[in-house]
Amino acid sequence: MLTAALLADDPAPPLWHLVDSGLAHDIVPELPALRLEQDPIHRHKDVLAHTIAVVAKTRVDLILRLATLFHDVGKPKTRSYEKGTVTFYHHEAVGARMTKKRLSALAYSPAVVQDVTELVRLSGRFKGYADGWSDTAVRRYAREAGHLLGYLNELVRADCTTRNRQKAADLQHHVDHLEARIAQLAEADRRAAERPLINGNEVMARYKLAPGPEVGAALKFLLALKRAEPDLDRAETEARLDKWWAELKQ
Prior knowledge:
Elements: H1 2-6, H2 12-20, H3 23-27, H4 47-56, H5 62-70, H6 75-78, E1 80-82, E2 85-87, H7 91-105, H8 110-122, H9 135-145, H10 149-158, H11 165-193, H12 200-207, H13 213-228, H14 234-249
Antiparallel strand pairs: 1-2
């Protein structure tokens, strides 16, 4: 029943039906438990309304919709008040444990349970990006997300239900910027990790050279050759290098 609701083109009506009919209390009691005010002082919309709105913004995909459905389930257990403001410290970690327990009880496959639980755990990682992340922080975000990176970024995008158009546009811009940085850093790391089959010492020994620009030019040629033809073996690489060197010396 929960899966059918989540995989509807518009999951909001069936999810509200589960809650309003009382069925959710038997299937996924964490859902009606979200019907609380985030901030009783300012009377912000409750977490349940926010959650269902987030789910409704996503494409039809079980992993993604389960993750958005459970991403805030830890809030009721972590709610506290500080100086008139409500807080939910570490609700992602608490929510991840709750998610794993509930999805396992509902007999979802271990792979689904693992992926959704991890997405809930990581759901707050994007916070603070607008304040400026180092390249190390960006790499850490991508590394922790692993194969779930696309899902995580989709969750972050959907988790913005503000009516303030500027805030919504800023959030999308920041995610776009993060995704671009991840791609750029991945490409830079890939290139930095490349090594030609013949190193500088071998080039110097082969042509009786001292360290200098000729060695650098040879290594540049070898790296370009590897990028263009990554399956080239050592013998053919040596032959191409000898040909390049002979033409250089003509």
